[in-house]
Amino acid sequence: MLRFVVRRLIQVIPTLLLLSLLVFAWLRSLPGGPAGALLGDKATPAKIAELNHILGLDQPIWSQYLRFLGRAVTGNFGSSLITGDSVLAEIGRGLPATAELSVAAMVIAVGLGVPLGYLAATQRGRALDSATIVATLVGVAVPVFFLGYLLKAIFAVKLGWLPPSGRESIGLDATRVTGLAVLDGLLTREFDASADAFRHLILPAVVLGTIPLAVIVRITRASVLDVLGADFIRTARAKGLAPHTVRGRHVLRNALLPVSTTIGLQTGLLLAGAVLTEKVFVWGGIGTLLADGISRHDYPRLQALLLLGALVYVVVNLLVDVSYAIIDPRVRLS
Amino acid sequence: MNVLMQRRRERLDRLAETGGAGEGKSLLAEAVTRLRRNPVAMVGAGIIAVFLLVAVFAPLLAPHSAEESFDALRAGLRPDSIPGPQPGFPLGSDQNGRDELSRMILASQQTLLVGVLATVIGLVAGMAIGILAGAFGGWVDNALMRLTDVLLSFPSLLLAISIAALAARASQTTVIIAVAIVSVPVFARLLRGAMLAQRSSDYVLAATALGIQRRHIVLRHMLPNAIGPVIVQATMVLASSILDAAALSFLGLGDADPGRAEWGLMLANAQTYLDVRPELAFYPAVAIILVALGFTLLGEALREALDPKSRR
Questions:
Q1: For B272, nearest residue in chain A (alpha carbons)
Q2: Threshold 0.90, pTM exceeds
Q3: Yes or no, beta carbons of A294 and B155 under 8 Å apart
Q4: Are B84 and B234 in contact (CB under 8 A)?
Q5: What is the mean pLDDT of residues A287-295?
Q6: ipTM for the predicted complex
Q7: Nearest by Cα to B95 from B245, B271, B247
Q8: Is B61 exposed, middle or buried, given 0-12, 13-18 or 19+ CB atoms closer than 10 A?
C-alpha cells in the first residue's frame, strides 16, 4: 500500500511539471498582459514597457519560466499583481475558508445523497423514487449561481433566518486557530462564534452541495438497483440471513464501490462550483481569489491557483484509489 | 492517469457500445417508435419544441425590439425601483427601460444559438478526431486518445473557465469556443469506441473484401452505425453548454455588451438589481432551467431507446 502511494506520488511530478509549463506559456502568449491590466486606462506603450521591465516580463520566456519554477519549488509563487501580497500567503488565507465550505458541502451531499439513493432504489417505481429522480434532474439543470441568489433572497433577505453573506458577523472578531471558523469556535470555547459561523455556512454549503448531491443520489440508486438484482443477494436471502445483514454487508458494501468513486470525483470538481458559490456569498476563499485573478489578469496568482487545483485533484484521485482497496478487497493496488 | 479521466473514459466507452442497429427496422425508425411510447421523451421533446418555435418566430412574437429603450418605462426608473408590468409591456421594464418580454423572447435565439454552436463545434471537432482514431486504429488512435485524455482529466467547468479567462477579451465567441473545447474529448472518445466496435464486424469485412474504398466504408457504412451514442451525448451537451455559458457570463467572461439579449447574460446582469426587481433574474433563470431540463430528459430517453439491453 505504502509503495503504491509513493509510486503514485512520484508519477505526479512529471504531470505537474508539464502542467506548469502549459499554464505558464499559455498565460503569457496572450495579448493584453498583466501590465496593461494593472495600468488600466492610464496605459501608454512607454508605461507598459517600464512596468514589464520592473515585473521581469521583458526577459525571454524560458528564463521567466525557469525563474518561476525555481521559486515555485521553494514555495515562492511571487506576489499578486492586485494586492502585492505573496501569492502563497493569499492562498494560505483563502484555503481554510474553501476547505470548510467544501467539507460542509460534501457532508450534505453524502449524508443526504447515499440514504436517499438507497431509499429510492428500494422503493423503485413508487412515488418517492419518481420524486427523487425528478428532483435530481432539476437539481443539475439549475445554474449554481442562480440557486445561490434564490436561496439568499428567500432565507436571508425575505425570512431573515440566515445571514446573506460572509463567514462571520461583522464586528465579531473571533479567535482563529485552524482558520475553519466553526471548529475554531469549539476549540477556543467561543461557542457563540461557532454558532455564528455555522449559520453563515449553511446557505453556501447547500448551494455548493446541490450538484454533488444530485449526482450521488443517482449513482447510489443505480448501483443499489444493480446489486439488488444480483444472484448473491438472492442466495443470501435464501440461506436465511437477517434482512439487516443482507442490507448492510451485502447490498450496501457492494453498492458503495461506484459511489465512493463518484464522491471522490465530485470532491475534485468542487473548486469549479466554489468559484461561483463564493462569488455569490462573498466567501473570500480560493474561489474568490481565482475569480478576481481572472478578471484582473493576475498571472502569478492564476499560475499558483491552477497548479494548486491540479495538485488537489491528483491527491483526491489518489485517495479515491486507496479507498477502493479498503472497500473492495478484490482490488489490488499495484 | 487519474480517476476522473479513467471514469469518464470508461463511461464513454460503455456508452459507445449501446448504439448498434436492431434487427429488421432501421436504428432511427426503431428509436422513434420507442421514444413515442416514452412519456419522459415526450415531455422533453415538448419543452424543446416550444422553445424552438419561440426562437424561430421570435421576431414575429416580440412586440418590440430588444434594444429600444422606451420613455414610458425609463420615466419610472429609479435607483430603488424598476417599472413592473403595465399596458403594452406585460413583463415590465428591464434595468435600461427596455421591454423585458421582447428581450426574453428574442434572447431565445441567442441562447439557443450559443448552445447549438458550441455543441456543433465540439461535435464536429470531436467526430473528426473520433473517426480518424476509430477508422485507423494503431498509432493514430493512440496519439489522438492521449490528447483527449489530457482534456478529460480536467473538471469541465474549470477547463471552460480557464480557456475563457485566457482569451484576450471576453466575448460571445470566446464563450462558445471555451464551452465547445470542453466537449471535444467527450465526442471523440465516444465515436472512436463505437467505430472500433464496427471495425471488426462482418459487414465491414465483407465490404473490404468486395474492394470498396476505405473512405467509403468508413463514412457510408461504419459512421451511420456508430452515430447513435454520439447523438445521445450531443443532446446532453446542449443542456450543459447552455448552463456553462451562463456560468461564464456570471463570472464576467461573457459578452461585455449589456445590450445583447441572451438569457445567461441577462441572468448575470440581473444579479445587480435583485433587491429592486428579482423578476429580472427569475424569468431568464426559469427559461434556462426549462431548456436544460428539456434537453436532459430527451437525452436520457434517447439513451434508453438506443440501448440494446432495454430492447424487447
A1: A149
A2: no
A3: no
A4: no
A5: 82
A6: 0.76
A7: B271
A8: middle
